[in-house]
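User: quick one, sequence for these tokens?
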């Protein structure tokens, strides 16, 4: 009997891709077994770069290894938002792969400058619409009517596709209208919130526009429930979000020791008032 002989394979990447892969924790490993003691392969690990493998404690920023695909998403969103951002923070015209998470968050902050809460949310809506092909919302409504299956399917998609934006998450069971279903997503520690440190930025640039986009544009209700005590967040597909005035986040105070524009004398974040 002839035994398959596995040989080490060397993959060649374009220089730009190779440089980005080097930031993804590439490790070469020798694997010994009874068939071939010289099998080598490469593990590409993008994500949290903490010794524990878990998000950093509250008040500390989690270290990440962002790869080529994460950087592409950051660059795409940042360049779309740059059109609406105030001048001053960007280091000239950045290429698609020149953005990192810090510069992505910086663009978001500059979008907020000089705009009301509703205007900030409208910018995010326009950016999200611009990322989609023509007719995408209508097609989404046909493919994913507001059913239990659609809610659970989109929850499952959220975990891998939004990892670059919010960090690690997992699908959880929730109860909607008395029925249990696996259409919830628990974000363990939101990367966007911990990097911005701003309650208003979380609510105006992420929570409310994302809820509205899925609920009103896609026709699939979504409620996001941030926990400002530990920076975790629950996304509940299939649950209609409450009006802003009835949402607990509308009364949330600033992170006095974290947010660079916090007003410790205010009972609620000023960015939620305008």
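Assistant:
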């Amino acid at each position: 009997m002839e035994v398959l002989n596995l040989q080490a394979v060397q993959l060649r990447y374009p220089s730009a891709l190779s440089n980005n892969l080097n930031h993804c924790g590439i490790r070469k490993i020798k694997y010994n077994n009874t068939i071939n003691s010289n099998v080598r392969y490469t593990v590409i690990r993008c994500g949290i770069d903490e010794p524990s493998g878990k998000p950093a404690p509250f008040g500390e920023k989690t270290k990440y290894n962002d790869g080529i695909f994460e950087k592409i998403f950051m660059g795409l969103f940042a360049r779309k938002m740059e059109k609406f951002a105030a001048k001053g923070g960007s280091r000239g015209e950045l290429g698609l792969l020149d953005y990192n998470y810090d510069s992505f968050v910086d663009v978001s902050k500059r979008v907020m400058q000089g705009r009301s809460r509703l205007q900030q949310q409208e910018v995010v809506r326009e950016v999200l619409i611009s990322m989609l092909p023509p007719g995408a919302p209508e097609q989404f409504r046909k493919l994913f009517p507001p059913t239990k299956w659609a809610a659970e399917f989109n929850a499952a998609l959220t975990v891998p596709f939004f990892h670059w934006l919010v960090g690690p998450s997992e699908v959880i069971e929730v109860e909607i209208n008395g029925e249990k279903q696996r259409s919830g997503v628990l974000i363990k520690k939101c990367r966007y919130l911990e990097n911005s440190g701003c309650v208003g930025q979380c609510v105006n640039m992420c929570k409310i526009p994302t809820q509205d986009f899925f609920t009103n544009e896609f026709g699939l209700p979504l409620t996001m429930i941030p926990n400002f005590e530990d920076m975790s967040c629950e996304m509940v597909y299939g649950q209609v979000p409450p009006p802003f005035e009835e949402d607990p986040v509308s009364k949330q105070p600033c992170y006095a020791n974290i947010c660079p524009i916090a007003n410790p004398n205010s009972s609620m974040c000023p960015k939620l008032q305008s």
